[in-house]
């Protein structure tokens, strides 16, 4: 059974704080192993990648087979049904349309001093996308990572995806094709991250790496950060549903379970001012759990990390949600817009009971790569911005320099940076001569 | 002497690649020490911070004295001259005006399916700014970090700044005051980062940490990344100047030296199509070096990492600059705008010879916290965006769900995420009943 909390109970604050502080993931300390894998790939390139792939993925490769060939890709995607292909294409079109609106604008203006200032956005040249193998090999994640990169204008976009025992998900290859990915390498783990960051004989290095992965992948991303850009270190994900009593308990139960079924360390929280409704949802969850294919995973998540919180009112629910800063937030209430205005921290908000979170995972349009583990307090979901960078621009005229140069010289001297001051002074002196 | 390269030489490509790959910084492996400092601060809070400060900064503190008192701040800033204060205020006003233009817009629209989509920006609630002590304690960096945070709307903004032996720079406190910083703690090192990330009895944790620091600070930021947001791991910085022969060699020499004087591992590169001018600049650098207070530092940087590259033309200069992806790029040419259009990777561009880089360090308006060590390939300078996060919004209507829900259900099933599919199906069934 999940935790049942009531904000009117005297022990509530302690119990809620414990819920917030709960460690949901054992991060094994794989840092030393990962460091040696990265060093090995840097030193020996393809040979190291191939050996590590043989060991971890039981796959014998050779350099020419690290990437899927055109013929292999064609053969795999031919297996995809027309319905699945149509669904992926609808998703891709909607994700593309949403992200196209995120393209930021350049700016340039002249200020009162006569200085021309501004900035300019440009795409990262190349990006690598990590796609997990096995059960968590989600074609939807390929779309969610690759499409923003292509919208941003990334020239070269490659995917790495381990294929343990040679098994590949045809939908992953189709999603890569639809999204415009240039190459797919059948490698994974820390060795794939190292290959993307440093390059090998056959794999050119990229400038940024995105995408989720296991503890080895996460540790490797943390290590190569700085050498290349990374998106974020993803943690176990969560949903928080704020619902009034005027909802179908079964819908809300399924929404909670759609998070729980991802992972035993996922977290689903219902917050409602209606104690009777809370009970009804808990019963619906129990009923639905019995029939779910992934009931072992979803059941463990709901039992260990699930919570049902009864509040005095919706305002209190919003305040609690802001302390959680959930990755996904459903507002299943009569006036979701009014409640949304009270939300300060959330990765994505789903407004109204007709918007189950699963819509956002696939076809809504917004990105499903979102800040987990309370990081919505300080970070955002993946977007076009993650594949762009900004260059600032400044141009002084002689009169602008005359106006603001002396202050720069003064500050340089106060910081004991003499050459800084002299570089301004030399120009001011020329103006004074003239 | 710095390296002299000529793109017409047969050995150029190898020499340039070596220049790009040059390791300019010895990062001592302080990770184990930092891990234990962080664990100590988490376990013992203020007591650990105070002990570590006594050990590393030769400062005896008690909890009530971790933060500067109002009276101490007033007494320190009273020491600042009127001219220095006016210069800081001019800088602050210009930085504020520039960054105010960076505030991104919210968006919301209805698409063809009837779905309402959009996003909303909001500030991070609290941020901590690391300011190094000693020589590199720059008031300008306080402004450059704190003002974007305040423009973004960060509610609580604190500074940590070590004061070894009790020595504090009054200008740092004044800059913090001008920028609207709420508290300044006289602590530094990994212990200060740990205190900001996890909190102590007297220091409330923050959601994001920005600002430069030494190897311990950098390692600590890397470790707490995820628990809190961080800005970037700063490396040794660099300037690249593209200049035609129609420049005063002395100005360009001073611009190169204003980078070199920062740090022995800083890098200054001149790229010019005019071999005679290249020679004249090298001579001017040598001449200016003799009289600089920081000639030991600047001289070592110029000798070990400086480079003068003669190219066939300006187009080739731009192409080389793009491979360097310099933090600072000066375009001292007749038509800097035309050349800027060919630049794909640079942190900040300074257009024309009247715009020495030092203007950007202090009073230009754009941020001087910029991507170093070639990371302009994938990242941007500090901005208001670093203190904001975006929440995506989606709202389905029944008819929108009818239009796109089946595709979501299909993809959920293909990913073996049954509850995801059922959460959509339950709603579609209701619509079909109705």
UniProtKB/TrEMBL annotation, chains A, B:
Q: EC number(s) on record?
A: 1.1.1.23
Give the family, as the similarity comment puts it. Belongs to the histidinol dehydrogenase family.
Please give the cofactor(s) recorded in the UniProt entry for this protein: Zn(2+)
Catalytic residues, per the record, are: 327 (proton acceptor), 328 (proton acceptor)
Pathway, per record = Amino-acid biosynthesis; L-histidine biosynthesis; L-histidine from 5-phospho-alpha-D-ribose 1-diphosphate: step 9/9
Drop me one GO molecular function for this one.
NAD binding
Q: NCBIfam families attached here?
A: hisD (TIGR00069)
Residues reported in the UniProt entry to bind substrate: 237, 259, 262, 328, 361, 415, 420
Q: What HAMAP family does this protein's entry cite?
A: HisD
Taxon lineage: Bacteria, Pseudomonadati, Pseudomonadota, Alphaproteobacteria, Rhodobacterales
Q: What does this protein do?
A: Catalyzes the sequential NAD-dependent oxidations of L-histidinol to L-histidinaldehyde and then to L-histidine.
Return the protein name.
Histidinol dehydrogenase
Sorted alphabetically, which keywords does the UniProt record give? Answer: Amino-acid biosynthesis, Histidine biosynthesis, Metal-binding, NAD, Oxidoreductase, Zinc
TM region(s), chain numbering: none
Q: GO biological process: what's one of them?
A: L-histidine biosynthetic process
Q: Which residues bind Zn(2+)?
A: 259, 262, 361, 420
Reaction catalyzed: L-histidinol + 2 NAD(+) + H2O = L-histidine + 2 NADH + 3 H(+)
Q: Is this entry keyworded Metal-binding? A: yes
Please report the organism this UniProt entry assigns to the protein: Cereibacter ovatus
| Residues where NAD(+) binds | 130, 191, 214
């Amino acid at each position: 059974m999940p935790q049942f909390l009531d904000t009117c109970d005297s022990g509530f604050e302690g119990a809620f704080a414990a819920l917030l502080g709960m460690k949901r993931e054992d991060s094994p300390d794989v840092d030393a192993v990962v460091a040696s894998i990265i060093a090995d790939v840097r030193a020996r390139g393809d040979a190291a990648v191939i050996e590590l792939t043989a060991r971890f993925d039981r796959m014998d490769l050779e350099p020419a087979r690290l990437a899927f060939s055109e013929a292999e890709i064609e053969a795999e995607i031919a297996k995809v049904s027309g319905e699945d292909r149509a669904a992926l294409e609808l998703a891709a079109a909607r994700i593309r349309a949403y992200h196209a609106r995120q393209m930021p604008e350049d700016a340039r203006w002249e200020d009162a001093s006569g200085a021309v200032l501004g900035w300019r956005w440009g795409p990262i040249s190349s990006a690598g996308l990590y796609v997990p193998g096995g059960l968590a090999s989600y074609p939807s994640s390929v779309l969610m990572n690759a499409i923003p990169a292509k919208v941003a204008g990334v020239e070269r976009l490659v995917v790495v995806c381990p294929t343990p025992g040679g098994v590949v998900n045809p939908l992953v290859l189709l999603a890569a094709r639809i999204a415009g990915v240039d190459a797919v390498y059948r490698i994974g783990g820390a060795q794939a991250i190292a290959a993307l960051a440093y390059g090998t004989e056959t794999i050119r290095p990229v400038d940024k790496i995105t995408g989720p992965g296991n503890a080895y992948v996460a540790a490797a991303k943390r290590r190569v950060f700085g050498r290349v850009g990374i998106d974020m270190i993803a943690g176990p994900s969560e949903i928080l549903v704020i619902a009034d009593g005027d909802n179908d308990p079964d819908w809300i139960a399924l929404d909670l379970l759609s998070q729980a079924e991802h992972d035993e360390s996922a977290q689903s929280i219902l917050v409602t001012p209606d104690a009777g409704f809370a009970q009804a949802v808990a019963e619906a969850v129990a009923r639905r759990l019995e029939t779910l294919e992934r009931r072992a995973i979803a059941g463990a998540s709901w039992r260990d990390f699930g919570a049902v919180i009864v509040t005095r009112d919706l305002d209190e629910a919003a305040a609690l949600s802001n302390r959680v800063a959930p990755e996904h937030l459903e507002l299943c209430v009569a006036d979701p817009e009014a409640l949304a205005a009270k939300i300060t921290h959330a990765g994505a908000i789903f407004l109204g009971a007709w918007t189950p979170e699963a819509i956002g995972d696939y076809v809504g349009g917004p990105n499903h790569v979102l800040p987990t583990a309370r990081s919505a307090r300080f970070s955002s979901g993946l977007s076009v911005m993650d594949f762009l960078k900004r260059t600032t621009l400044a141009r002084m005229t002689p009169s602008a320099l005359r106006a603001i140069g002396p202050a720069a010289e003064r500050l340089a001297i106060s910081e004991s940076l003499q050459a800084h001051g002299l570089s301004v002074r030399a120009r001011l002196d020329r103006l004074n001569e003239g």
